[in-house]
Structures are given as structure tokens and as C-alpha cells.
Amino acid sequence: MQLEQMYQEIILDHYRTPHGAGLREPYDAESMQINPTCGDEITLRVKLDGDTVAEVSHETLGCSISQASASVLTDLVVGRSVEDSLRILGAFQEMAQGRGKVEPDEDVLGDGVAFAGVAKYPARVKCALLGWMAFKDAVIRSERSDSQEATA
Amino acid sequence: MQLEQMYQEIILDHYRTPHGAGLREPYDAESMQINPTCGDEITLRVKLDGDTVAEVSHETLGCSISQASASVLTDLVVGRSVEDSLRILGAFQEMAQGRGKVEPDEDVLGDGVAFAGVAKYPARVKCALLGWMAFKDAVIRSERSDSQEATA
Amino acid sequence: MSLDVTKIRGDFPILARTVRGGRPLVYLDSGATAQRPRQVLDAERSFLEQHNAAVHRGAHQLAEEATDAYESARARIAAFVGADPGEVVFTKNATEGINLVAYALSNASSGCNAAGFPGAERFEIAAGDEIVVTGLEHHANLVPWQELCRRTGAVLKWFEVGEDGRLDLDSDPITPRTKIVAFAHQSNVLGTVLPVEELVRRARAVGALVLLDACQSVPHMPVNLTELGVDFAVFSGHKMLGPSGVGVLYGRAELLAAMPPFLTGGSMIEMVRMEGSTYAPPPQRFEAGVPMTSQAVGLAAAVDYLGEIGMDVVHAHELELTALAIEGLSAIPGVRILGPTTTEDRGGAVAFVVDGVHAHDVGQVLDDRGVAIRVGHHCAWPLHRRFGVAATVRASFHVYNTPDEVTALVQGVQAAREFFGVS
Amino acid sequence: MSLDVTKIRGDFPILARTVRGGRPLVYLDSGATAQRPRQVLDAERSFLEQHNAAVHRGAHQLAEEATDAYESARARIAAFVGADPGEVVFTKNATEGINLVAYALSNASSGCNAAGFPGAERFEIAAGDEIVVTGLEHHANLVPWQELCRRTGAVLKWFEVGEDGRLDLDSDPITPRTKIVAFAHQSNVLGTVLPVEELVRRARAVGALVLLDACQSVPHMPVNLTELGVDFAVFSGHKMLGPSGVGVLYGRAELLAAMPPFLTGGSMIEMVRMEGSTYAPPPQRFEAGVPMTSQAVGLAAAVDYLGEIGMDVVHAHELELTALAIEGLSAIPGVRILGPTTTEDRGGAVAFVVDGVHAHDVGQVLDDRGVAIRVGHHCAWPLHRRFGVAATVRASFHVYNTPDEVTALVQGVQAAREFFGVS
Ligand SMILES: Cc1ncc(COP(=O)(O)O)c(C=O)c1O
Ligand SMILES: Cc1ncc(COP(=O)(O)O)c(C=O)c1O
């Protein structure tokens, strides 16, 4: 059965007990992202500590893939530098959009490699990326408000 | 050769020496008609004498079929009652739009029966009818201005 | 009376293929787009191999033949919905047809555009005028009206949808300021068939125009637009076994005659000068440019195909499948069907949610078993919000579907619950 | 380098047919619509028999395959004209593409519509602003601008056409108030190729937008839209060996991103509520409703076919035929060719009048001999008025035409003179 290729145990585990679920205060920036084809939504908050991602929290109204992905994201970026986290994001995105032809690096992506199977289903790639897009947007927003403070 | 079916000698004769060609004064009503696909134009004037079509004159910028048709029209309606002329118009139109399946009545249509061949070429039917549409429109206009006078 | 599905399936080449590693294709997504029988493919191809030319423009034999084929297609499609050929305008899809009417309204209001069309004031719309839709519309019959309101200052109002998936007729927002009432004949999500007669009556009472979105009715049941008494209607070729890239706007003859044009260009003109132009009578006035010639021919073949089966037979067949689906799905714990759960005033679209399993995940399990359905908001996002869900699973039927395929759907939904451990 | 016409003709089923009682078809009307090779017909059919589904909407395997086919088509067509896939919007024909831009301008001006698109003020147009076209435009690139002027109070101006059929660059009406300059790459009547670079330079100098009507260039010569530096361009599938019912609007990425939508409905939205909607990024923003899926696939096959021959080879072949036609027709007394009589800056459309024989009558004699050309004003009525004629005869070529067919044309014109006794 091909289903197990997409829904690997790791994914189902994260889906059942998602890390970072539930919005938390305080935070530096928030982003709401939506998948226009299915209406799924994620709201994601980022708290930075200097240059480090201190906390990620999110509320995801979506399928197993989008929820598990947000959970894995939380694991992968918390405690990393912003720069590192964006590098991980890049690797995740490359794999997700790679149509199953990109060999993921487990050292970089950790549990994220489980999403390699999703890459073979183009209609689900957006689900896997929803949380990551929210994270990217939130980081950009927090940097923008930072620089506003700096110039203020 | 099928050409001769469309361009019967009668048609070519009328084309070479069209009757009613050249706009004349006085007249009761005038109509300008245009063929939007090829840009051909006819201006046609009608002078009525009571209920009789006294004179038809026209200026036709168009192909042999439209010119010959206006010429034949002039022959057929001048001297007839308005009612008769519209009956002839009806018969001509029926034949022209009949796709070559309507047997024309020579007693009614005179030289007009020569246009039976044109009916097989749908793209040329409008050419054959251009003058007739102008005639119909002019008659309607003259009746309208009549009744305006009557009510004035 | 009854229908030989096996024979019909033989006409549809795509139904013979397999998906996901050898599983037979169970295509239950005809509400999005239907498949095409050989007869439609052949009609289009033989037109292209024998008669293709620009229509209404040339004087050579091919141009004559192409024009005849195109106009014969118009006449057959018109007859199929009880209309006159002059009341059928070809568009690229139903969406264009609705936009056409919406833009004609604002064009009539930008003054001089209406010049020359007696009666065009019928279409003028002013700030404060009202447009009425319903809460179950496809985006195609909602967003163009929102945009018309933006352009003109008109106000959008709507009928609410009841918990049973029927229109709440008590929420009637029609007033003397209502210019047009636009609604779906059949919901593409719930399957609900709307009370056309009653809505037409209410619109008429205030002198409003009526536009019927017949995308989900014309392909599935007998529809006579003249008898329904609507002013405008739209439908799409690709949902009725015909080609993509072609749709129909129906308009009552006298209204089309008075309506200013939308798209302008070649073939819709009467006279063109650099200083200004005048326009041809309908339907040409609304068909600018080289049209979808072979697609119209294909759509006429689809209409012939459906007509031969009989639309009452098609409808009865689809309702039989709908009843089976409702029965089978309702029996599964945690499955909730949105919309009517009987076949009364209903067509063959069945939308549902599965407690604890997201629609996308249900769809994935079904896809893995070869069952093609649709998941998401099906371009009816406000309706989904009204039911408090982001996404549903929708199965929809056409003439080629079988009871066994409904069984495959039901079993697939059970399998999804098992896979995600909610059973 | 040179082209195997015999082999190519074998690809076009329709060229094997006869007309008017057994005469071989000599099809010289490709300027109106071209014929389609088996490769295009097969590509569309195999898509429909194997992969047909609604694109961008479904999650099942067919929907994935259909979406891939559709987006791959976009990418190949974009590459063919030197554009990025995101810069290619599918329309039903070129006419829709021009209307899209014209309506986007008035939509941007009706205020709130532009909300949310940074840079949309670039498209706002006010009373007194100017739109510039030329005196040789097809109605498709004239009437939509006349209507835009009616809607907004803008003023239409135009370049005059010289006696030689070239643009009179001294009649330049461009001023600082010019919002957009819209012109044909190649005249569909005269064959004249316009000086794109110079016109772009002049438009840029006043900050105006540029729209290129590439209907008669993209099918016949190598065209790189990015290198030409235009802002928008349009062309139609049916003139380039592809299907009817599909065309392309090219727009520079940054402009499309800032432009408000035209047709609205499904698949072009970001978020829809009853109270209002937001829209997707381009190209989706401009593709409302179920698109011309199989037609896009067919157009990509046409582009592959042309690309394999090589557009420089296609162009050289057509110019060879053009030179023969000019030479043969000029040798007939009383024949007057409108437009350039050399092949310099020229494409393969040859329009002419025959003294003493109306174009319709010439066309009839040609048709009787199996030669299909077009007669009339070819949707360029103002241009015909400028030359003082109501109608011309136009022969136009494509990759499948032969020198013998040009000879048949020339002989047919001679026969017409004899038949009407003017020789
Ligand atoms: C120069 C030119 N522009 C525009 C058009 C309109 O193309 P379409 O009718 O395919 O929209 C044509 C062809 O008819 C043309 O030749
Ligand atoms: C009810 C309804 N209206 C409108 C549409 C839009 O049709 P199209 O996308 O073919 O324009 C659809 C289908 O998508 C529909 O189901």
C-alpha cells in the first residue's frame, strides 16, 4: 500500500501529539496563513531571544500533514539561530517541492525527512509547507519590527 | 463549372448595366444599409405615389451580386403597390435563404429567379439581400413619416 | 427507462484506465468536471480534420461548412434547454457568462455605452441599488457580484442557508431596490435544488432580473429555461460530457437585444470607425473574436448524446446512486452529510465530513484506493464557514457511475477511519 | 534550414480533402485561422482519454496529472516566446487578452478594486488621459480601447498609416498624458511589421505602458517578448496550429502582480467571504473558472511542433511564398497590392484589389477553383477606409503552403478578370 509512504509513523505520531500546539504569550510576531484550495488555516507565533528562536506556538486547522509539519517545524527550529532555521526551512522546502527526487539530509531535517513521501503528491505539498510559510513570514515580521525599533 | 450557376447571364447583365443606379430627387424615404462582414454599402431611395412605388434609385458600393440584385429589385417593384412589393420581397428572401431548396416562382420574381444559384452560397446571401433590406427599411420609414404627418 | 451503464461506460475511454498502481479508476468527481465519450471526441476531431475554418468571416467552402457546424451546434444546444438559438451566447465557461452580465450592468451605467440599445436603461445600476444572491453560491456566482458592487456602489445581500442545507426563504433580502437576483439551480456542494419558481416570483414582484446558475442542473436533469422563466442562465460544457473551454450564457431575446456588449473586438461589430463603433445584434454582439468553434461542435455532440439517453433517465440514475451513497455513508459512525439526506429536490452531489479525520486525509485514502473525489471548499467557502467546517469530502455522479462505485466510496471512507484510528 | 513541405503537409489531415466538386484544397486563409497537425489533435485527445480532470482543484491522481499537463503547457508556451511561466495567462483568445488589460485599467480606476495590490495606481486612468493605437489595427485592438475611453473619459489617438502601408512615425500622437500604447506586431492585412523597438522607446519616454498585439507575429516568426521589452502581449492558439478557444496574455511579472483582476470567480481567489474577497497571485488571479485545459495542452503541442521546425525556417518559408505572390500578382494588370511590395519588415499576408472586379467576386472565382482566401475588411475596417476601398482579397500563408499554391492563386485572379470581362 502506498499510503504508508506518505503517512509514515513519525508523521502520524506528530499529528496525534503535535509539539508547539496552542498559541502562547508573549511573542514577537504572528502570522496567519491559509491554503486557498482547501481553506486550511494556521496561526503561528514566534518568540526570539536575540538571534535565537526561543519559542514557536501555533494553532492549526488542517489535515494531518499540515499539523504534523507544524509540529516537526517546532522541534527543528526552537533553540536554533534565525539563520539556521531559515536554512532548515530551505532544505525542507526543497525536499517538499522536489517531487520525490530530492534526497533529504537527515542531519539537517531530523523527523522532517518523513515528509519525503508527501513530495510525491503535489496537491499535498502546500499542506506540508503551510506552517513553514507562516514561520518565515513571522520571522520577517519580527525583523521588520526590530528594525523599526532600531530606527525609532 | 459551378461558377455559372451563381453568375447567370441575367445577373451579369444587370451588374453591367444596373437599373435605378444613381440617387435621384425627390424621394420620400432613404435607407443606408451595410454588410458588416465585407463593408459593402447601399443607399436606396423610394418615391411613393399614393400606395404605388413610383421610383427607386440607389447607389451601391458592392459586389456584382449586390449590384445586380438592386437592379432587379428596381425592375420588380416600380409600378407595384407597396403591398405587392413587400410580397415580392418576401418571396425573394425566402428563395435567397432557402439554401437552394426553395423553387422560385418566375411569375412573382421575374429576373429575380436568377438568384436561386446564390442561395447555395450562404456567405453571398447577404449580398443578394442588401438592396432588399434597404428597400424594406425605406418603405417603413416613408410610412412612418406619413403617419406622423397624419397625426400632426 | 433504465440505463445500460456497461454500454455507456464503454463510450468513455478514460474509465478503462487504472490509477495508483493498477487500481481501476472510480471517478466520482464529475461535479468538478465530467469525462467525455468517444462520440464527443470524434465529433470535434472530424470537424477539425474536415471543416475547420474561421466562422462568419470567410466566403470559401470550408468557412461555409464551419459556420454551418457552429450555428447548428448553437441550435441543438438551444433546443436542449428549451431556448431559441438567438438566445444562446457561447462563452469560455459559466464564469465568463456571469461576469458578462455583471459587466454589462456596469457598462450600461457608464452612460454612453448604452447608446443605441433601446431599453438598455433596464440594466443601469446605481449606488444603493441591491444585488441578491444566496449563501450557498459557487464563487463564480458571488465574486463577480461583489466586484460589480465595488464598481457601482451597489450593495450585496443574500438569502441564508438553513441547517438542513435548504434556502431559508424567510431570510429574504429582496426589496424594491433589488436589481438582480442570482442563484444556483443546484448547489455544487449540498446537492440542494433551489425553488426556482418561488424565487422568480419574488424577483418579478419587485421588477428585478433573474440569473440562474445552471452549472449543476443542465448536465444532470431536464431543464427548460423558457418554462423556468428566468432572464439569464449559465452552464459549462465540461460538466456535461462536453469540451472544456466552452460555456453558454442564455438570455431572453428581448434582454440580450437591449444589453450593451462586454468583450469587444472582431465579429461583434456593425460598423467600425476610429472615432467609434456600433454593434451587431445578439448573439454575435457578445461573441468577440474567433470563437470556440470545435468546442461548440463538441458540446452539441454531448447534448445529442445526453438527449439520446434522456435527461429524465440520467436524473433518475443519478438519484439512485445518491440514495445509495446517503444510505451507505450515514451508516458509518462519525460521518456527517451536509445538505438534504433524502433525494427530494436534490441532485447527485454528496458532501460530508468524517469526525476526527480531515477531508484531505479522507481524500488521500480514497485516492490510494482509486476513488477520485474532491476535498476542500469546492469554491463555496462561505457555505463551508456557515457549517463551521474548513473542508468537506464531495462525491458527485454522472451517467457512467455505478452502484459498485458507490460501495467503493463507502468502503474507502470506512478504511480512512480505520487508518487514522478513529473507529 | 529549408523545410520539407511534403512531409509537413502529411501531418495535416484537412489538406488531403477536396472542395467544390473534387478540387484539391488550396488553403490560403491561415491569417484568419490555421489548420492543425495530427500531433496537436493527438496531444489533446490523449490528454482527454488519459488524464482529464479539473486542474488546481483536486487531490486525486487524475487531478494531479491534469494539473501537471496544464502547467507544463504553460511553461513550454512561455519558453516559446521568451517569457517566464508566471507571465503567461491563458485566455480564450487574443481578444479576451486585450479586453482583460483594458478592463483592468478601468477597474484600477474604480478605486477600491485596486486595494491590496501595491503598485495598482500604475493602471489608474482618468478623464483626459490618452490611449494610443495605430490606423492599421485589427478591431480587437481598437474597439476595447474605444470602450475603455467611453467608460473613463480617456481620449483615443492614433498613428496614421502611410501610402506605403507603413506607420507614419511623424504622425506620433504620444504625449505625457499617454497611458498605454497598443499596436500590432504585424498587420493582419498589409503584412507590415511595425517598428516595435522605436515604439517602445517612445512610449517609455513618457512612462506609458506598451501592449503588443502579436497575433500575426508569434505564429510566423521568432518572437522573444522579454527582449522586445513590451509590457503586455497577446496571441491566439488557433492561428499557430493550435486549438481554438485558447489564447495567451503575456504580462511582465511585476505588472501582473500589481494589476487588479478582470473575470472573477473560482480558482482566482485567495479568500472569499460574503462580505468581500481577496485574490491569488498571477497568473491564477486572471484565470477564473475551469480553464481551457485540453486546449492549453494542444497549444503546447503546437509550440513543440513549430519549435522543432524552427521559427526562423518557418519565417523564411513564408517570405519565399510572399515574394512569389507579390511578384505574380503585380504582373497582372489592374491588380493593386496594399502594403509593402518587398519582403523587408514584412510577413506573409498579401492583400490586394482587382480593378473592376469586387473582392467578393474574385473570392468566388478562387473558391470555385478550390483556393480559399479571405475577402472583406478582415476586421480592419478603418484601414480599408484609409485606402479608399470597402474590401480587399487577402491571401495568407503558413508552414504547409507551397509555391504551386501561390501559382494557383495568381492563375485564379487572372481567371476572375477574364470571367468578369475586365482583361
Ligand atoms: C492582428 C490581429 N489581432 C487580433 C486578432 C484577434 O484574434 P482572436 O479573434 O483570436 O481573438 C486577430 C485575428 O483575428 C489578428 O489578426
Ligand atoms: C454551481 C456552479 N457554478 C459555477 C461553476 C463555475 O463553472 P466554470 O468553472 O466552468 O465556469 C461551477 C463549477 O465549477 C459550479 O458548480
UniProtKB/TrEMBL annotation, chains A, B:
Biological-process GO terms, alphabetical: iron-sulfur cluster assembly
The organism's place on the tree of life at top rank: Bacteria
Molecular functions per Gene Ontology: iron ion binding; iron-sulfur cluster binding
InterPro entries hit by this protein: NIF_FeS_clus_asmbl_NifU_N (IPR002871)
Domain (NIF system FeS cluster assembly NifU N-terminal): residue spans on this chain: 6-127
Alphabetical list of NCBIfam families matching this protein: SUF_scaf_2
Name the UniProt record assigns to this protein: Iron-sulfur cluster assembly scaffold protein NifU
Annotated organism of origin: Pseudonocardia hydrocarbonoxydans
Automatic annotation (TrEMBL), chains C, D:
Necessary cofactors: pyridoxal 5'-phosphate
Reactions this protein catalyses: (sulfur carrier)-H + L-cysteine = (sulfur carrier)-SH + L-alanine
Top-rank EC class of the record's enzyme: transferase
Pfam family, one: Aminotran_5
Annotated EC: 2.8.1.7
Keywords for this protein: Pyridoxal phosphate, Transferase
Annotated signal peptide: none
Domain Aminotransferase class V intervals: 26-409
Keyword Transferase annotated: yes
GO BP annotation list: cysteine metabolic process
Classification via NCBIfam families: sufS
Reported function: Catalyzes the removal of elemental sulfur and selenium atoms from L-cysteine, L-cystine, L-selenocysteine, and L-selenocystine to produce L-alanine.
Protein family (similarity comment): Belongs to the class-V pyridoxal-phosphate-dependent aminotransferase family. Csd subfamily.
Protein's recorded name: Cysteine desulfurase
